[in-house]
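Hi V.,

Quick status before I head out on leave. The structure for the redesign project is tokenized and pasted below; the design run finished overnight.
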């Protein structure tokens, strides 16, 4: 029996209202002593969620909360835009080649 070698790294995140949603890890990056995560909503193995649908990417950073590492929102707009731009470049390098082929008509 062939095993699926790809197993996504999944994170269950909770929003301010207490709603839980699963996200698939796209990339992790360390910058200026902080650790940042790029994630996209995950809908299960039967659904090819990787940058499909609306291409939603959530960018969070790791912070210590009550002595535990937690993923938190980036509060500063300029930090979010800087890190977001860096992730977009990295993700375009990783996944962009597939998009370029399908964009050519």
């Amino acid at each position: 029996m062939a095993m699926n070698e790809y197993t996504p790294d999944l994170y269950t995140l909770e929003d301010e209202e207490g709603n839980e949603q699963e996200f698939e890890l796209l990339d992790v990056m360390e910058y200026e002593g902080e650790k940042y995560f790029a994630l996209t909503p995950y809908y299960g193995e039967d659904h090819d969620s990787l940058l499909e649908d609306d291409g939603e990417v959530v960018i969070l950073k790791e912070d210590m909360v009550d002595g535990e590492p937690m993923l938190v929102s980036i509060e500063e707009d300029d930090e979010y835009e800087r890190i977001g731009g860096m992730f977009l470049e990295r993700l375009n390098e990783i996944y962009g080649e597939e998009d370029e082929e399908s964009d050519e008509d």
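Above is the designed sequence. The CA atoms of residues 85 and 91 lie 10 Å apart.

G. will cover questions while I'm gone.

Best,
W.
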